[in-house]
Amino acid sequence: MALRHPDGDYAITTMYSVPDDAWYLELDLVAGQRNLVTAIVPDEDPAREPTVCFNPHAGHADVPYEVMRWFMHQVDEEIRTSRAWMRLRPELVEIIHQLRQEHMGVIDDDDFPQVLADVRTTVSEEDLPDVLEAAFGRNPDGTTMYHPQAPQPVDGQGDRA
């Protein structure tokens, strides 16, 4: 996915590296298709910090301050959204990290009730929504954070085929 700077001379390309468990944001000079800077935002391992790398093969490039601010704002937003769970209390971060590793961040609807029961043995009801959202993208009722279940017809009401 590419996002162009308003001046049109620069663009940010965002991609996910599965082997690295990290988001890569690249600041590119559109003319000449030169990568200038790459930000790496790990989203699975709390021990890995985000980094910024300058392309040693790009040669000297004067990047306007406003462009660099725009790029770093995008990097900051990626850090905020991808790593928000890592700012929770350390014991919750450890539980979430273990759940994400064990279940690869996804849980089947049929498995959710048992996993929920297991999580409830280690997490307070107050912390449960944050843990489930960060580990699986789910609410405590089992619905997904971004795709709630559609309302079901009640007592035979609704569409009839």
The residue fraction in helices comes out at 25-40%
Spell the H/E element sequence.
Answer: EEEEEHHHH
Shape: elongated
Compute the average pLDDT: 84
Rg estimate, integer Å: 21 Å
Give me the count of strands: 5
Poorly predicted tracts of residues: 147-154
Kindly name the structural category: alpha+beta
Distance between the termini: 41 Å
Number of domains: 2
Strand order of the largest sheet: 1-2-3-4-5
Proportion of beta-strand residues = 15-25%
Instruction: Report the total helices.
Output: 4
The largest sheet is: 5 strands, antiparallel
Summarize the structure in words.
- α2 runs parallel beside α4.
- A hairpin with an 8-residue loop joins β4 and β5 (51-54).
- Residues 147-154 have low confidence and may be disordered.
- 31% of the residues lie in helices and 20% in strands.
- The protein has a five-stranded antiparallel β-sheet with strand order 1-2-3-4-5, with helices on one face.
- It is elongated.
- The protein folds into two domains: 2-84, no CATH class; 88-136.
- It is α+β, with helices and mostly antiparallel strands and 161 residues long.
- It contains four helices and five strands.
Question: Features of this protein?
Answer:
5-stranded antiparallel β-sheet, 4 helices, 161 residues, alpha+beta
